[in-house]
């Protein structure tokens, strides 16, 4: 990086907020993909005005800018794949600005950690439902930019369902407001809607206004045991169709059950084909009982051999332990986990899981599956040994076949992790040339010099 540029940033932000040293280049070179790309430097803006001046300068000088939250992304969105500067919000722009109890709205800076917001609003009797498993460290800016989902998505939806308004800075430094604190707003294009899930490629989000809801008072957990994945998948969508919307309806297949049981010895049914874990919530005991009755009936009608209701908080935690520790337990099947978060309409889940099984046989790979089946989102993990190149190649071929099957079933490449660099090569499977060109036109309208997080989302034809 040209010394003049560094001096500009130091004069703007103060030396204590500008780092072009090796330690910072390494510290900000990775995310959850474990791939490494060192940025030239890291900037810590103190406020929106700083962001605006950084972007204007970078735009004028064609310097790449990569916004970064906690770097917990699974697809490389926060990686500086072609150098440039990282803008990080963790140091200064990390405050909850307002919790408006009358309108049930929170206004936050992008660096606020999801769990900090959840705790702050719960102290006031309110509820911010989106709960990605990374909630202890991922930021609201990152959540909005990836449209993060979580365990509670089946009932409460995902990040986009809570974003009411955004403030953001365009690559040329212009500051824009998109949306309002109002429940209704149909004036003009839905710019906030375009920025959600844009993976830091269109604008830098500087303030987020989020809808809050009343916190339900009661919650209960139950687990259904099935002989086959097919039975469990039928039970998922038939439960919803029967009129019950559980907070969560999570699934583990037999490979996952065995991996968790072998590692942690929790008394799980090792011979089961699949288990479903469901939470229901509400304000009346009687409503929860009724919901569990319906779930029990639908599970049994679809072949459940057992239905266990947690008697207390500890038993509920024990049931959830299996799901929460599944991801690490399945590493017993291979040293490289190629994990995807494909999503289909819920009624297609039985077909999707059948197709995954067939594809695993064809490519001779082990594919434990678990995840948020309540919203049709399956974490599909092709496990291979990274030392065996031929096996790794087969693993990626299996992944491509799984993507194709997902799209044939009306599904999407990603339910929550985004595209970034990891899934960029597969965008062509999901979108026509016309659709990809429309994406490129949108990118160009926001970022004509292609300085903001370029070479992501399959937008650059040659990358
Ligand atoms: C163990 C684990 C579990 C996970 N579980 C879930 C899960 O259940 N559900 C889920 O959805 N995801 C999950 N994730 C993925 C990840 O946590 C989410 O994608 C999260 O939203 C990323 O937030 P972050 O702050 O780490 O963002 P980063 O990874 O730093 O960035 C993500 C993207 O957002 C952009 N960005 C960040 N801040 C801004 C901003 N202010 N303006 C513009 N662009 C910005 C970045 O450029 C990048 O493209 C998990 C990750 C891990 C490691």
Automatic annotation (TrEMBL):
Pfam families: FAD-oxidase_C, FAD_binding_4. The keyword Flavoprotein applies. The keyword Flavoprotein applies. Residues 35-215 form the FAD-binding PCMH-type domain. Keywords: FAD, Flavoprotein, Oxidoreductase. Its cofactor is FAD. Gene3D superfamilies: 3.30.465.10, 3.30.70.2190, 3.30.70.2740, Uridine Diphospho-n-acetylenolpyruvylglucosamine Reductase, domain 2, Vanillyl-alcohol Oxidase, Chain A, domain 4. It comes from the Bacteria. One of its GO terms (molecular function) is FAD binding. PANTHER family: GLYCOLATE OXIDASE SUBUNIT GLCD. Belongs to the FAD-binding oxidoreductase/transferase type 4 family. This is Glycolate oxidase subunit GlcD. It comes from Campylobacter blaseri.
């Amino acid at each position: 990086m040209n010394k003049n540029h560094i001096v500009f940033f130091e004069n703007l932000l103060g030396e204590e907020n500008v780092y072009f040293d090796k330690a910072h280049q390494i510290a900000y070179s990775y995310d959850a993909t474990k791939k490494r790309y060192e940025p030239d430097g890291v900037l810590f803006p103190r406020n929106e005005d700083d962001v605006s001046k950084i972007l204007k300068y970078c735009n004028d000088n064609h310097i790449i800018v990569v916004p970064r939250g906690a770097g917990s992304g699974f697809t490389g969105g926060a990686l500086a794949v072609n150098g440039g500067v990282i803008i990080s919000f963790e140091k200064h722009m990390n405050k909850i600005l307002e919790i408006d109890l009358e309108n049930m709205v929170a206004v936050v800076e992008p660096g606020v950690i999801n769990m900090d917001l959840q705790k702050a609003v719960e102290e006031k009797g309110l509820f911010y439902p989106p709960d990605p498993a990374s909630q202890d460290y991922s930021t609201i800016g990152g959540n909005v930019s990836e449209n993060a989902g979580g365990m509670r998505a089946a009932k409460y939806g995902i990040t986009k369902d809570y974003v009411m308004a955004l403030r953001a800075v365009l690559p040329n430094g212009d500051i824009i407001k998109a949306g309002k604190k109002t429940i209704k707003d149909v004036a003009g294009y839905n710019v906030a809607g375009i920025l959600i899930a844009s993976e830091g490629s269109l604008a830098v989000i500087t303030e987020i206004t989020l809808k809050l809801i009343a916190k339900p008072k009661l919650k209960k957990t139950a687990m259904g045991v099935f002989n086959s994945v097919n039975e469990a998948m039928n039970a998922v969508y038939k439960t919803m169709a029967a009129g019950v919307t559980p907070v969560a309806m999570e699934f583990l297949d037999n490979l996952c059950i065995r991996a968790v049981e072998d590692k942690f010895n929790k008394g799980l049914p090792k011979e089961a084909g699949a288990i479903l874990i469901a939470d229901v919530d509400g304000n009346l005991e009687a409503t929860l009982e009724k919901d569990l009755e319906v779930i029990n009936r639908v599970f049994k009608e679809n072949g459940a051999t057992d239905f266990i209701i947690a008697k207390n908080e500890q038993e509920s935690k024990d049931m959830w332990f299996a799901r929460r520790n599944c991801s690490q337990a399945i590493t017993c099947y291979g040293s490289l986990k190629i994990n995807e978060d494909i999503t289909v309409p819920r009624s297609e889940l039985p077909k999707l899981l059948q197709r995954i099984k067939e594809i695993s046989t064809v490519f001779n790979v082990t594919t434990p599956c678990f995840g948020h089946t309540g919203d049709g989102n399956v974490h599909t993990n092709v496990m291979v040994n990274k030392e065996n190149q031929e096996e790794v190649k087969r693993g990626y071929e299996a992944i491509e076949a799984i993507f194709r099957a997902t799209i044939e079933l009306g599904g999407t490449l990603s339910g929550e992790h985004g595209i970034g660099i990891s899934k960029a090569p597969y965008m062509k499977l999901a979108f026509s040339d016309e659709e990809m060109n429309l994406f490129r036109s949108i990118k160009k309208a926001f970022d004509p010099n292609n300085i903001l997080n370029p070479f992501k989302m399959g937008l650059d034809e040659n990358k």
